[in-house]
Amino acid sequence: MSIINRMRTRRTNGPVLSRRRPAKKKWGRLAGLTCLGILAGGVLFVQSAAASPCCTCIALAALATRAAIVAFHADTRSYVSDEMKKEQEWWIDEVMEGHVRPALQRMTRTFVTLQKLVTVDYYKMTDVENLLETSQTYGLKQAEIHKKFQSSQELCEIGTLVGGLAAAREISRGTTLSMSEYGIKRDLFDAGAVSAEGRDEDMAARLEQFKTTYCDPRAQNFALEQVCGEGGPPARRNRDIHYAMMADIPKTLDVSAVGAADPEGGEEYLEDLQALEVNLFGSEVLWPIEDLEGNEKKHEKLLSIAAARSVARNSYWRQVGLKAAGPPNRREFMAAVLKELGAEDDAINAYMSKNPSFYERLDVLAKKYLQKPGFYIGLNDKPGNLVRKSAALDMIKLMIRGERKKTREASSATAAVWLMTELNAAQDRVENK
Question: CA-CA distances (angstroms) from residue 221 to 232, 273, 305?
Fold first, then answer.
């Protein structure tokens, strides 16, 4: 049974029905009064109509009827008011307080409970979402750091190969500076030089060195057999005139004037390089100062010639210094580069010296290493490593440019001296006319 039906049942039972019985009596009394008024009015109307029209009788009948109607209206309003009040009380007490309010309270409690549960679940889901986003952010940052700051194998290899360059470069500079002084001391008859005894003694010492060390009896159709007999050691023959074999082709020369590498046979090789330098830039020494007393002009020319020879010798000894034997460290890594290119151990030992020079190290770093297939495969790398590799290649390029610049400077100085020599010769011809 529905709530409305139950409420209707309760309305028709109990004290509610007892309150409606007096209302029926009122309706009976009102009906009797109404009928009495109508009857009285009818009688008066009949009598007046039978006798003669009487305004007084009609007025009285109207007043009686009006009074009955007013009384009826008053009873009706009182009854309706009572019923509306009862209906209001019934709605408030029975329906609202008894049924609607408890139902609303139960619904409110249900909604509050559900809202709490939904809120807890929502924030649980929100916490899980934040946790997942945080974990994802950490993972992305870790991957980003891994991508940006993890060096590749190629960068480690380049850094390893660069390791011995600085020491080899200093050995090169020291060798160039030290050996450049040899020719100056010889031209100026220094006390420790071979020419200290005089020009003739210097020429005799050089001729004796040629006979015992560099002479090849087979030269000039064996004509030199009469000069030097069996000649010098086969390994050192013609080394005083063979520039390509002595200084140009080898990548490392077994000589170091600063004693950093302690190469085998370094003293003999250094002697051969000095003999080659004498044949190239100073076959005859200058005149001693005692032969030029009272002639200051010739003395100035003597110094000018010595300076010009010094410029030419510097170019030669700079070439030797670049290829002077360096420190032995990092050689195994250089050999690994050649082995990756396909060279066997015997070929590597024949190609590379035990103490690689600055020139040879730079050749492996700037040429051989960049010929490896693995280097170009490694270019498919992280963006950060590609930037670092680019910086490393720029560093190598700067080193090569620096050496080329020094070579051009030496060539320019040599060209300037040659031009000045030609100008002096032209000036002497003009002055002697």
Answer: 17, 26, 37
